Amino acid sequence: MKREIITTKDGSTTIHIVDWDEHYHSKHGAIQEAYHVFIDHGLSAINKKQLSILEMGFGTGLNAFITLLEARKRKLHIDYVGIEAYPVLPEELGQLNYSKLLHAEDQQHQFDKMHSCPWEKPCSISDYFGLLKRQTDFREIQDKDKFNLIYFDAFGARVQPELWTELIFQKMYNALCPQGVLVTYAAKGSVRRAMLAVGFEVERLPGPPGKREMLRATKP
Length: 220
Prior knowledge:
Blueprint: E1 3-7, E2 13-17, E3 22-23, H1 30-40, E4 50-56, H2 62-74, E5 77-83, H3 90-93, H4 98-101, H5 108-116, E6 123-126, E7 129-134, E8 147-152, H6 166-175, E9 176-184, H7 189-197, E10 201-206, E11 213-218
Helix pairs in contact: 1-2
């Protein structure tokens, strides 16, 4: 499928899949969306200094990078697992401007290391952030009671409805520790109902720019 780099409204870049008219991040602001959904309503909801995070949809690595920056700032120790079936290409990564927009040019080498480290092997990105990238389909996840937090950042249900089903959210529920949290930019009623059906407690929260609401689910 044809892909192109675009600039979103907050100045940060993302990838546009032309055939689907789908973006890796919000066209209203990639960095704004990532912070609002995954940091402000995800990471900030976990009161732990050492935690495990699962990202469904590693993509450009933006969510992982801002989490690394926050780990440094908050003095957290994070084990991060990123799931991605179709890794971003090196020539696409070279056109992303996250470190500049985040005033983190001195951390660009860590962003680069996230993408250059091998798949399926644990990698120490810094003293406070370890990464394991897994190249697999969401439907293959079999983890049990392992993660404190899930960033659910799949492509939208309009183009990949199979990733927003009870089957997938049951896997997410199983993968979380008790009191674990899942956050996503999505707010569709069908997504909320699928989460509730597998046992999650679900909150509707204010959405990022361009979206009225988002969802946060907690495993009791």
